[in-house]
Model the fold of this input.
Amino acid sequence: MSYDLGVHKLYCPNCSSMIYGYGNDDGIIKFSCARCGYSRASKKAGRNRLKTDEFFPRGGSFYGEERDYIPEEDDLF
Done:
């Protein structure tokens, strides 16, 4: 399945700063916010579906939930 490997951009849902993600050869796009620590990994799962894993920084998210887990590089897919 081919997927665009270029630069992707979106606003961080936690702090609203612009973050950029880069695709790799496996079709995974990884985003990381330097301002607040939010990270996201997206992969195309089908023609019309996108699988997304989001990790919020320690101490909470914009949902108000507290999270103690910070992902390692190997945890993203």
